[in-house]
């Protein structure tokens, strides 16, 4: 346990309270606008004395799934950006493909379970299919565009005799021994995401599952820039996988991801992972030439509706383009970012923070400062204790290594390592073993998932913290736009101390200035309602804005005359004509969560880990923190204002659709 805080009165951040509420929200592309319905007008109570009701903005409500598909269309459209190098445009094709798998594995789950078969659900499938067909066409276009660079994806028939012999040996030595031959009776048990082949004479007789550990795109030895698909090679030598040579047809499926038994604690997680049973199949892709009667066999066995089956030309998994992006010429990728480093911080971060706060905007300002801060704490003999919340930290992580170093040096170190981070459970389980082996205390998992981003250091009589909007992940820290606040402000550090003490005691945190869980909604509503007047102004930046109470409050603020700016990257479930709603999609993934309220000229600015969604506000321990330092507050407002003015990476979101604004002079994705 951390030692108790010294007594002393905390100063509370005062926020003006008003009764009126307000709302604002982004939009869908025209193809996603199917099924959007206007919200019914609220009935007015007759009253001879009541003043005339203020006009309400006509709202269009959109499902989360449709709004997210609209975002993924924006991702797909980046493949046509005239200002992006060729390989960067190709990279977005791979991002789109990864996103679409996530859609069918996770984001579709509620609609799949509750509205499957409805017109709205079929509209989602139609939009997903339209995107898949466009992505298929873009892949073919990219193959032609890559040829002038000397990059060619060849068919096996284009290989020389020697190359065919080499790949025959490769298949026999590396692929066939790790390939499963599956009878058709096992179709209901097929795994999610793997590439399969179907074969047979008349009836479907054999299924082949390729190992997922092997690359889908292979470089051709001795032919610089030459590649061949693994799937195409397998089709060329079907005799290595079947009793006799036979035509092969590709398919793959996606299941709803489930890991309910992991919602307990670390002791139960290994068994939960071992016993994990993926959910129902939500999506099937088959190649265009797949025999009709076999396709129907698969569809029925997997219990799919016809609209959930897509016919596409191979390759069925476009994530394979990542190989070309990684190995292609550097001149066709973005130039390395010139990252700024704060002067004087890294030499002595604690003396620096004794004088003032430091706010950084990643990746334009060095994320390495976060890792350096943790390492400095680990090495400093005056540091007694460290605490950290870790969510998606990856396989290599400088902060995690610093915590291990601190524990080995005899410091009091504890982490809340979230074992329920979807798709990262196994990686985090590995880290938990490493932590425990080094003497780092791994805290028990509370009932709510911990998504906060906080690093606490106690050094003698002083406390220091880092608070952020992004995961402590070195890869994301250099690709995602996020805010980092380093501070020794006692009102903030004491709350972070209380947050960790509560987690260690398995108690709900009680905070004074910071906000966690549903208290984040309360501070947002308070700020919005305080701006519900003609001179009010609200700036909100989130990845997702779907919380009904917040949207309702924004709508009331609109009706009261407030000026609203929304920057919502992915999911926005209410749209209004004439409201400044936008989504930024560009080189970096927009990830910071920020709320700013004019407060009659004395701006209040908050940032944190939480998106404005019921899941985040009610089911997680997030952290939202005020930016108290005036210089840091001005910096955050400046970032928001530049993004509002952006005309290089912007989509304007309205009830009628989404409109791209590219090629302008104002780039909001820069410092």
UniProtKB/TrEMBL annotation:
Top-level enzyme category: transferase
Biased composition (Basic residues): 31-47
Domain Polyphosphate kinase N-terminal: 63-111
Swiss-Prot/TrEMBL keywords: ATP-binding, Kinase, Nucleotide-binding, Phosphoprotein, Transferase
Region described as Disordered: spans on this chain: 16-56
GO biological process, one term: polyphosphate biosynthetic process
EC number: 2.7.4.1
Gene Ontology MF term list: ATP binding; polyphosphate kinase activity
Coiled-coil intervals, chain numbering: none
A GO term from the CC aspect: polyphosphate kinase complex
Record-linked Gene3D superfamilies: Endonuclease Chain A, Polyphosphate kinase middle domain, Polyphosphate kinase N-terminal domain
The Polyphosphate kinase C-terminal domain, residue ranges: 350-507, 531-661
Residue stretches making up the Polyphosphate kinase middle domain: 205-319
Protein known as: ATP-polyphosphate phosphotransferase
Organism: Meiothermus granaticius NBRC 107808
Gene: ppk
């Amino acid at each position: 346990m951390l030692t108790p805080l010294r007594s002393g009165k905390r100063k509370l951040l005062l926020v003006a309270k008003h009764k009126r509420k307000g709302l604002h929200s982004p939009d869908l592309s025209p193809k996603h606008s199917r099924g959007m319905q206007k919200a019914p007008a609220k009935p007015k109570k007759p009253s001879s004395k009541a003043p005339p009701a203020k006009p309400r903005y006509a709202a269009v409500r959109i499902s989360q799934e449709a709004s997210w598909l609209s975002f993924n269309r924006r991702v797909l459209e980046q493949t046509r950006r005239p200002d992006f190098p060729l390989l960067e445009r190709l990279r977005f094709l791979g991002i789109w493909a990864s996103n679409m798998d996530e859609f069918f594995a996770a984001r579709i789950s509620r609609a799949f379970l509750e509205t499957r078969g409805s017109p709205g659900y079929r509209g989602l499938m139609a939009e997903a299919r339209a995107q898949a067909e466009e992505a298929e066409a873009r892949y073919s276009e990219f193959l032609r565009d890559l040829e002038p660079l000397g990059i060619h994806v060849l068919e096996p028939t284009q290989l020389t005799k020697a190359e065919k012999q080499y790949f025959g040996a490769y298949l026999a030595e590396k692929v066939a021994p790790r390939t499963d031959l599956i009878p058709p009776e096992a179709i209901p048990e097929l795994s999610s995401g793997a590439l399969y082949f179907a074969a047979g004479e008349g009836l479907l007789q054999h299924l082949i599952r390729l190992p997922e550990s092997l690359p889908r795109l292979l470089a051709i030895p001795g032919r610089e820039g030459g590649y061949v698909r693994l799937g195409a090679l397998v089709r060329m030598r079907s005799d290595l996988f079947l009793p006799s040579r036979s035509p092969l047809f590709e398919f793959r499926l996606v299941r709803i991801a489930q890991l309910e038994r992991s919602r307990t604690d670390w002791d139960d997680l290994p068994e939960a992972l071992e016993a994990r049973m993926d959910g129902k199949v939500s999506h099937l892709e088959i190649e265009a030439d797949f025999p009709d009667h076999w396709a129907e066999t698969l569809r029925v066995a997997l219990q799919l509706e016809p609209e959930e089956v897509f016919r596409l030309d191979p390759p069925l998994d476009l994530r394979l383009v990542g190989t070309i992006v990684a190995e292609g010429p550097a001149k066709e990728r973005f130039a390395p970012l010139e990252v700024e480093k704060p002067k004087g911080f890294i030499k002595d971060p604690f003396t620096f923070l004794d004088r003032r706060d430091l706010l950084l905007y990643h990746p334009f300002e060095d994320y390495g400062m976060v890792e350096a801060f943790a390492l400095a704490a680990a090495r400093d003999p005056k540091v007694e204790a460290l605490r950290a919340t870790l969510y998606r930290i990856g396989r290599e992580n400088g902060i995690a290594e610093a915590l291990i170093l601190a524990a080995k040096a005899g410091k009091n170190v504890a982490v809340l390592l979230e074992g329920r981070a979807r798709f990262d459970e196994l990686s985090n389980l590995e880290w938990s073993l490493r932590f425990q082996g080094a003497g780092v205390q791994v805290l028990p998992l509370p009932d709510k998932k911990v998504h906060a981003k906080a690093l606490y250091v106690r050094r003698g009589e002083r406390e220091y913290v880092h608070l952020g909007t992004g995961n402590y992940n070195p890869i994301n820290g250099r690709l995602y736009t996020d805010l980092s606040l380093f501070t020794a402000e006692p009102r903030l550090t004491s709350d972070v101390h209380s947050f960790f003490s509560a987690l260690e005691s398995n108690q709900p945190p009680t905070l004074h200035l910071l906000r966690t869980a549903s208290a984040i909604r309360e501070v947002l509503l308070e700020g919005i309602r305080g701006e519900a007047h003609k001179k009010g102004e609200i700036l909100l930046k989130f990845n997702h804005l779907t919380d009904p109470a917040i949207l309702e409050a924004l709508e009331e603020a609109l009706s009261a005359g407030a000026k609203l700016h929304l920057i919502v990257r992915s999911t926005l479930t209410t749209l209004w004509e004439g409201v400044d709603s936008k989504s930024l999609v560009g080189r970096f993934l927009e990830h910071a969560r920020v709320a700013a309220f004019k407060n009659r000229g004395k701006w209040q600015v908050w940032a944190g880990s939480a998106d404005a969604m019921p899941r985040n506000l009610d089911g997680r321990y997030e952290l939202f923190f005020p930016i108290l330092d005036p210089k840091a507050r001005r910096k955050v407002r400046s970032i928001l204002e530049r993004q509002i003015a952006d005309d290089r990476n912007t989509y304007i979101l309205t009830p009628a659709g989404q409109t791209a604004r590219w090629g302008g002079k104002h780039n909001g994705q820069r410092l």
